[in-house]
Fold this protein.
Amino acid sequence: MITKREFDTLVLLTETKEVVSQKDMAERLKISAEAVNKTVKELTEKNYCKNGQITQAGLDALEPYRVKRAVFVAAGFGSRMVPVTLNTPKPLVRVNGTRIIDTLLDAVVEAGIPEIVIVRGMIEELLENSDIVIHYVTSDPEDQVFQIRHERFKAYYIGEIKLITLMMKLDCDIVVMTMPDLETYHIKRSYVRKDMEYIHVPHSIDSMNMTYRKGSIDHFDTIFCVGPHHKDEVEKMEETYDLPHKVLLNWGYCLLDDMRKDYESKEKVINEQKTILIAPSWQEDNIVDSCLEDILQKLRATGYKVIVRPHPQHVRHMPEKMQLLKDKFAEDKNIEIQTDFSSNDTVFNADLIITDWSGIAYEYAFTTLRPVLYINTPMKIMNPEYEKIGVVPINIFMRDSIGCSLNLDQLDSVADEETRLIE
């Protein structure tokens, strides 16, 4: 965990390739030179920065705080745009020839946010089929929920500092959060009412026990479980650490539901030339950093089309490396280094995906019913005690259920395994 001042300093260092002087830092962070000196010294001791530039360890320290998913609420009527929206949903209205939602999506992709969720009517479903009043709190002043107009829906922008106070003074019946770590860090349960129900909605299929910090969901009353693996984990956590029992509801994964509906509505593509997609994660020692070129060399002889789709953060933070890859394989017509993330067609039209620990594997496999070839690079573990509860995380057991996995010393078999899975 890093302090807010350390966080602000590291973010500043990511925004420039030049060495930033401590005087400039003080001016841009609006803190004293003494505070900057102390913060830089602490970050240097932790190996998070060196000689005025952020290190890989510093980037890794920022990773838990990175925005990983953008949620667009694209279901509002758009009453202020009548009559334009009488027959066209507001997000699909064209401004200067471009749909509103396309402009927003382009901005998200450019910002390097890897996952986009378009919520089509989730809030409206509650508004139309219940008498619940929804108060939606966001720390983003540009949040799309401000487009929704309904007497029982009230949206508020609250800055991060004031959010801490707000959460402690909440007076309502139910609080729904996708953010974990209630009570363990700065966000606390209400001091005003003790009978409020706090619900946690996981934002991915992954194991909560391994990919969340220890104790991050202990203080919620209800968990919306993506699948039985979440239910098993929570029950074992309660048993192992003698925690109060929570209400566990089978929730599913709405992003996957939307992906499957979208996929089923499209005409299926049959590739004349079998197509392999390599989609690495952004964690330390991922495929790009450890074995990508080795894999590409071994796949050259297969005659398959191979598309490398790096994580958006690779493109953002390592543009030179991505360009070198493009240059190296520019003459190979069967290998493409793809850095345009504006469409998911590449993902869902592939005959096979090769990845390390990316969550895209679940979405691809469960949507297309096609296999995944995993490369066993080192795992990213947020909870060092994850094995204590005796439940194997889905991140591990699913690897050989929706495909197969290879260790780094087994890469000589990658072409044979690929052919076996496809054929």
The chain has a mean pLDDT of 84. DSSP finds 18 helices and 18 strands in the chain. Residues 15 and 317 are 10 Å apart (CA to CA). The first helix runs from residue 4 to 14.
